Amino acid sequence: MSFVEKGIESFKEGDYVKAINFYSLALKNSNKPSSILYSTRAKASYYSYSSGGTDPESIGAVKWKKILSDLESALKIDHENLDALYLQALEKVYGDQTPETGLKSLYKVYEKSINYLGRYQKAYILPRDIYLSILEVKHKIVDKRLKDSVLSCHGLFQRLVQYVEHDYHKQLDEYDLKKLDKKSFDYATTNLSLKYNKDIKDLVAVFENNHNHALIKPPIDDHPDHLCDPISFTLFMDPVITPSGQSYEKSWLWNHLEKSQTDPFTRERLTKKQCYPNLCLKSCVEEYIESNRIS
């Protein structure tokens, strides 16, 4: 068994450190290292540093630098290496902390992956896995924007409260300077206190409403993921379902099958005859469109 085969076996078993060592030995003993060998070692490193890919945010800058070094070597040899491009995009999201930029890169890799017909078709990451990463990053962006929005609102709320309090105390001082009799003073300050309390309650109501609105309508992701075609990311109009259980928009899938008779997600052989209308999903989309008055 070669070092590469041992590395693949170790990777499948989840022993990523051992896999890294075998891939390193393969690179060291190769006269002409391949692009996929560098990207495979980078992938093993990524999985090792992120608890099997479940916690990429825990990867520090130094470890990302090691991964990027392998990715750069891989892309120098083959600039279309899908695994390398995919991991580069993840680094932008979790290492560089620029999820919007990383998401754009993921979309590009995803498109390349769906249409990829090269020699490493079975070795590279499946389009389905890139799609899941896209959804995860989109939700990460939603959460971040919502959090920033709430924090921003909180800061604005505090400033407005301070303004109302400042105005309240200013008017109290003015009443003191007027040297009103006790009855008039008590009447004026009582009304002022009532106004102050009402202003604060109104502010709370406005910001609570704004916060709830933000929760109901996130600033990204116009439509639910399960109602959108995974190729075009638009609402289904005429969904069809494949033997793998995955649904696609018929026109987009038919266009893909003209180029390659494979399931875009799994790369398993697929023909039009194997696909059937997903009437239940179509009904759900129509109900969603009707209830949200989408034209």
From TrEMBL:
Gene source species: Hyphopichia burtonii NRRL Y-1933
Protein name: RING-type E3 ubiquitin transferase
Broad EC category: transferase
Residue span(s) of domain U-box: 222-295
Molecular function terms from GO: protein-folding chaperone binding; ubiquitin protein ligase activity
Catalytic reaction equation(s): S-ubiquitinyl-[E2 ubiquitin-conjugating enzyme]-L-cysteine + [acceptor protein]-L-lysine = [E2 ubiquitin-conjugating enzyme]-L-cysteine + N(6)-ubiquitinyl-[acceptor protein]-L-lysine
Enzyme Commission number(s) of this protein: 2.3.2.27
Keywords assigned by UniProt, alphabetized: Repeat, Transferase, Ubl conjugation pathway
A biological-process GO annotation: proteasome-mediated ubiquitin-dependent protein catabolic process
Annotated Gene Ontology cellular component terms: cytoplasm
